[in-house]
Amino acid sequence: MFTKNFKTVLTLSLLLCLSSFTSCSDDDVIDEKQKDIVELASATSTLSTLVSAVQKAGLVDALKADGPFTVFAPTNDAFQALLDSNSSWNSLDDIPVETLKTVLMFHVLTSKVKSTDLSNVYVNTLATGPNDENLSLQVETTGGVEFNGDSKPVTVDVEARNGVVHIIDKVMLPPNVVTLALNNSGFTNLVTALTDSRHTTDFVTVLKGDGPFTVFAPTNRAFEELLATNSSWNSIGDIPIATLDAVLKYHVVNGANVQSKQLTNNQEVTMLSGDKITVDLSSGAKLKTTSNQSVVISSTDVQGANGVIHVVDSVLLPAN
Q1: What gap in Å lies between CA 49 and CA 91, rounded to an integer?
Q2: Domain segments of the chain as ranges
Q3: Is CATH 2.40.30.200 correct for 22-168?
Q4: Where are the alpha helices (DSSP H) in the chain?
């Protein structure tokens, strides 16, 4: 087996860009630390909708437990924006309880993470997806702090008796594998390849489906190295569409959420294209392709709501 790596799927800086954060005063922190997370939220007027949502989802007792927890707490305005995004949602009562529960649990970590601990990383949340695997939340600190691609901090490091609360400006929805790729700046070439208008396969629609999927996702550098192998390929648009279609299908497993712990040495995996790859754990974690490549798996187990992503350092090429 190989060690899970929830660090960013790219080699990114650990620089913290926290200058845009605001924080409560020392006196407020000392006072609020005597309250648990639910009591703290109940005493904060801008979090009243969150409190109602926690009550509706039956999570009050869970968030009163010892923890420690980290809670990303959306404001009332954030919840209103969520309701406004769906014409059939006029209040929290219109959101199915299980949906609401999953969304709320996606805002909770089972460890205490203060703003000074943040880096470019994927962290496990309490929400679960296929095979009851914990869903991954992306934290981005390069160029400004964001959570899950577009949620920003309003107030950080509000201490509670059983953890810490960061107040955020948007309700975060559990991402599917497409959203995970879109949110990561290291996958722009992959997104370009998937959305090429020449395709007869609608990869985005397919990968937004129920799945589950296992996606081996090449980095931007991996695609650049592929382009460099052919003098007539200056961009992804220069790759013949039939070739690009076959290559992309060789990166997806349909109907299985295969995390790293499920991979074994010499295991054969059938891809969406019908071709196979072979897992090689003899020296690190690698994939052997039918074209005799040996490709390093550089990051693993970025778990989405409909599948899991593993990062590879080369584009996988089938024999034909």
Answers
A1: 10
A2: 22-168, 177-312
A3: no
A4: 26-32, 37-42, 48-56, 60-64, 76-84, 97-105, 177-183, 188-194, 203-207, 220-227, 241-249
pLDDT tens, position by position, 166-178:
999 999 999 999 9
Q: Do domains 22-168 and 177-312 have the same CATH topology?
A: yes
Q: What pLDDT does residue 320 have?
A: 75
Do the Cβ atoms of 138 and 6 come closer than 8 Å?
A: no
CATH number corresponding to 177-312: 2.30.180.10
Q: What is the pLDDT of residues 76-90, one digit of tens each?
A: 999 999 999 999 999
Q: Any idea which residue has 């609020």 for tokens?
A: 32
Q: What is the pLDDT of residues 180-195, one digit of tens each?
A: 999 999 999 999 999 9
**Does this model's pTM top 0.70?**
yes
CA–CA separation, 25 and 43 (whole Å): 16
Supply 122's token pair.
């994927």
Q: Please give the structure tokens belonging to residue 263.
A: 């991979």
Task: Dig out the tokens for 195 from the structure.
Answer: 């959305």
Could you tell me the end-to-end alpha-carbon distance of the chain, in angstroms, rounded to an integer? 30
Give me the amino acid identity at 109: L
3-state secondary structure 83-114: HHCCCCCCCHHHCCHHHHHHHHHCCEECCCCC
